[in-house]
Amino acid sequence: MSGMSMLRPALPVSSAPWVAQVFSAKTVRYGGVVRRSLRWVEAEVGRAEFEAEVRRRGWHLVECNGQLVVFCTGQPIRVLF
């Protein structure tokens, strides 16, 4: 390209440091669960961005009593009672 370096595209949201912090745990790799307080998510990440990242991965997100619980699997989940 005539002496110019190629520009790399902007990194996707998923490259943000918080993604590594939240979704790098061993439990995530094995389809486990991750729990974060809603207050933490809103302060550090933003709820919409957090939800978008979980949705992008095809996982499930549940809110209960000020906590967000991510089921790190695309498989169906059931609430038993």
Write up what this structure looks like.
This protein is α+β, with helices and mostly antiparallel strands and 81 residues long. The protein has helices at residues 17-23, 26-29, 38-44, 47-56; strands at residues 33-37, 60-64, 67-71. The protein has a domain at 37-75. The protein contains four helices and three strands; from the N terminus they run ααβααββ. The chain has a three-stranded antiparallel β-sheet. The radius of gyration is 16 Å and the shape is globular.
Distance between the termini: 62 Å
User: What's the total number of strands?
Assistant: 3
Indicate the proportion of strand residues: 15-25%
Query: What's the overall average pLDDT, rounded?
Result: 84
Silhouette: globular
Q: Name the structural class.
A: alpha+beta
Helix-strand string: HHEHHEE
Helical percentage: 25-40%
Quick tags:
single chain, 81 residues, alpha+beta, three-stranded antiparallel β-sheet
Topology of helices and strands:
Layout: H1 17-23, H2 26-29, E1 33-37, H3 38-44, H4 47-56, E2 60-64, E3 67-71
